[in-house]
Each structure stands twice: as C-alpha cells, then as structure tokens.
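User: two proteins, same treatment. go.

Assistant:
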Amino acid sequence: MATCTRTCTKTSMATATVLISAAPFFVLFLIPVESNSPRHRSLLQILLSFASGGLLGDAFLHLIPHALEPHSHHPLEQPGHGHSHSGQGPILSVGLWVLSGIVAFLVVEKFVRHVKGGHGHSHGHGHAHGHTQGGHGHGRQERSSKEKQSSEEEEKEAGGSRKRRGGSTGLKDGPVRPQNSEEEKKGSDLRVSGYLNLAADLAHNFTDGLAIGASFRGGRGLGILTTMTVLLHEVPHEVGDFAILVQSGCSKKQAMRLQLLTAIGALAGTACALLTEGGAVGSEVASGTGPGWVLPFTAGGFIYVATVSVLPELLREASPLQSLLEVLGLLGGVVMMVLIAHLE
C-alpha cells in the first residue's frame, strides 16, 4: 500500500511538472509575432513592456518576499529595540544576494561581449547609441556613403563590362562591411541578453519544480493547488520570455524551442525533491528557508534583465498611443504578479 502511494505521488509530481512546462509553451502558438520585423514591432514592444512588468513584479512581489518570509515572524516574538538587530543579518544577506545576482549577470554579459569582440557598444539598442558614439559614428557613416557613391559611379562608367572588371564587386562589397559588422555586433549583444534571461528562467523553473515536489509530499490536494498557482504564474512569464528572445534576434520557432529547454530546470527541481528524503530540500527552497541564495539571486537576475535589457527597448521614439500601450503593458505585467501573489 505504501509502495503504491509513493508511486502515485511520483507520478503526480511528474505530471504536474510536465503540465507547467507544456501548457505555457502551447500558449505561444497564439501570439501573432513571427520575428523582430517592422511589421510586428508595435506588438512586440507591448509584449516587451509586459515582460519587464512581469520580471520586476516577480522579483519584488514573489521571489524576494519568499526569501524574507522565514525572518518576518521573529520580530513579533521580541518587541522592543533589541529585536531589530537579531533579524538584521538574514535580511541583509537577502539584499546582498539580490545585488550579487545583478553583479553576476553584469559580469557574464560583459565577459561574453568581450569574447565576441564588443567594445563598449552596450547601448546599441535604442537612440542612445548615436549619442554615445558622437562624431566618430557619423564620420564612419559619411565615409561609407562616399565609398558607396564612388563605387556606384564606377559601375555606371563600366556599364556592361562587369565581367571584364572582376574587382568591381569587391569594391562594392567593401564599404558595406562596416555597417554589417555593426549590425552583427548589435544582434550579438541582444542575443546575450536573451540567453541571460533564459539562465534566470532556468533557475526560476528549478525552484518551481522543487516547490511542486515538496507540495505533493504534503498531500495530493496541496500539490494540485501549488501546481495551479505555478501554472498561472508561468503563463505570463513564458509570454514575456518569448518576447525577449524574439527581440534578441530569434525567430518564433527558435524562441519556442529555447523556452522549451528551460523545462529542464523544472524537471531537475522535481527530481531533486524526489531524491531528497521527505522533500525537505524542496520545501525549504520553496519557502525560502533552504539555501538562502537561490531565490534572491534569481530575483537579482530578473531585475538586471528587466532594467538593462528590456526597459531600454521601450525608450525608442513612438506615437503617444504606442507609448500609452507600452506603459499599460508594463502595469499589466505587475498587476498579473500581484494577483498571483494573492493566490499563493
């Protein structure tokens, strides 16, 4: 009988984990965005604003409060001045881990850009790039345009004798390369942001898997309730992550495949909860009493991605209506996380 109960519990854990991974994935088919093209730019910007609101809401309303939760009960036990110092250490630790997550993501992004040959083009998205480059960027554009004009004049003079002058194509291709390299560098920088968000999402899914595993240890009803809460939380999160990946240069299919890969984190978390006796690790991490760095570190990653990679994209020049929709999208992401926090 006990063996049958354990088997049913394990099956329920696995089913719940697959559900929270697959259901949000199929929602992505309904989003009418194929790529980061001008045709889909307006909708993509609104989705990005929703993503930034969701990431910030998740960090400040879900992850950080859960990390602080174990320490929020102690001050009530010891009224007076002395209690504030006893709880200060753990709270300070949570804050430091949030900052560590931000710094770690910054270091990783700078390292990847350095390896790829980036030299200070961190503000390539938006209008800020032109201001930081100053006259140097304009001079390079003028030189390339002059070279283009000279090559076009040579082609006109040559007329149909392009076969005789085989080097003319080389002259034509030459001036275009600097611009292409700039665009490639910009696309490379954006992809780094997308991959950083995937890393944070992977860690977040790991904690979701731990929470589901621990909840089913406490009973089938608690497990189902936790699964539904995580599922409601994952759907807006998945939509936001999808928008960030598309903005990073991925096609719709590539973004969906990468999103599906993050399900490995949830499966690993559930497996970890299964392998630990009584699901202790899962319940501790889910409530914030376990390894104290997991939730705040992930929150720091979300804050970094939202403020450094996503919000600057919303500073592009847009019509008043588009700007209003973007602000409403950001608020919508925050409100969604507020509603989910009340359900938890």
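Protein 2:
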Amino acid sequence: MLTGRVPDDGRAYLAAAAGDSPFAPGTPLEPGLALVDPTPTWVYPDFPEEPAELLAADIPILYSGPDALVVDKPHGLPSTPNGRLLRATVQSLMRVRLREPELVAAHRLDRDTRGLLVLSRNPATRGFLQSQFQRREVEKTYQAMAPDIPEIGAQWQEVALPMLKVKDDPQVRVGSAAALPTQPTLSTQLKPQGRAKSTVTRIRKLATRRCVATSETNAAAGTAATAVYELQPRTGHTHQLRALMNHLGAPIYGDDTYPAYCPGTGALQLRAVVIELALVASEEKGAIKNRQRIAIERCLEDPWSQWNRG
C-alpha cells in the first residue's frame, strides 16, 4: 500500500487490483507520482545473487510417484525458500528442473542436514502427505558421526529430554539451562518445566573406530574414538538430534552451533537415511496404507563409506 508519492528507488511499482483505485491493475506507477489516496501496489524487489554452487547442486531423486517425490537433499541447501535464499532451495530448484510448479516440500530438514526429503507434487493429495508428518505417523531414521559414547551400545535406547527454543538464540536449550555438554543421562526421563517441550529420541551405536579429523568433520575429533549412531526422533523439536548429542557430551562433527556457535566447521555429519510413510494417497479417507520404506542404502550397508565427503 503506497501513500504520498511513488518512491524513486529504481524499482518498478505496478497498481494492484482494487475497487476504488483510479489505476487499472498492472498500470506502471511513475516515480514521483502523487497519490491522492492510499493505493494497493505490487513491487518487484531486487534479489541478491545466490551461491552458484547451491544453484547447481545435485539433488538425486530416490522415489518418483504420482503424489510425491523423495530426494536426497545435499548439505547446505535449504528445503524451502527463506529470507536469504529463494532460488537456491530444494523446492525451487526441483520446480524448475522438473517443470512442476506445484511441487511443495511436505516437511523440512535443517539446511545443514543431508538426506531424505519428501516433496508433494499433487495439490489434491498434499494434505494426505502433510498430515502424516503432523500426526507423527512418519518413521524417520538418521545417522550421525560424533565422538564415541561408551554408554551407548548396539541396542536401541530411549532418551526423553525437555527442550526449549528461545528467540534469537541459535541454540536449543535442554531443560531450563543452556545446551552445554553434561554426563550422559540415557536412563533418565526428564520432565519438561515451564515452556520447555518433551522430546523423545531412540539411539543406538552402529560402529566405532579411531578416526583422524579432516576438514569435513571437525578438528575436535582428533584421533579419539569416533562412532556412527542411528537416531530415531519420536517428536519433532527444532535441532532435536543436534541438541541431544551435545547434551550427551558428543556433539555431531561439523555442527556450527553446538556446543558453541562456530561457523565454517565443515559439513554437518548428520543424514536422514530412512523414511517410511504412505506415498500414494489411499482411497479410504484418513487411512494410512501401503507404507513405503525409502532408504539411502549405501549409508546403511557401510556406516563409514559415505562420511567425510560433504
């Protein structure tokens, strides 16, 4: 809505549709033009150049069906447009590459997390996909590389922790304290207090070995024992897995936020490797049938083979 005069700032202003506007929709409004009344207006802002390496990112398609795509999202590429990146996102790039303007991400992965992302391609069945995520009916498994935690073994263990997202704080807090490493509390079921929300995560260890740090992991790795973990979030809190591993004293390699904000630490060694949900809409309303398991099998077969490669 413009008032007074049309700005002379180098941008093009076009009249928007409005019943009482003296301008037809789409009429260019010249800089300096005096407006008698507040006028609904469209403006096309200038967008900064986006990183060429993100715009050219490889996004493998692992599943293609009538209602959905499942892709392997690269590290560093946002799932959807945000305030800084509009074109360099999985959703925008796949819309252009596949010429499917209706593609919409059914959920999100953190920008730094690599792995399986579901895209809805049919507006008529979009709610069917999104509702499965909203109702926590989707089974998701992640793999992470981090320092070895001796207390975690090959059997699944469940950890319940209260977490709190504080505005303008890059870290999610565990309980009421800042997310600083503590002694592992694998058997402790902590109850949330105040505004903190309950989180539940299953975790087990896949493999352990001594690993020399590289630029793709984290200098903190040194030559200490390193492990690959599998994690299954039962809730959907921001940074749930990253905050959990940091709380257990084993922040994920490449994490630029936990335990301290430190950008430029290399690719986050966290990947969404398995997702299980119904990818084709059922004829029976609300029913979840024909669940499909999509997995990055090369990660599952050899926990070490795909790490340290960005």
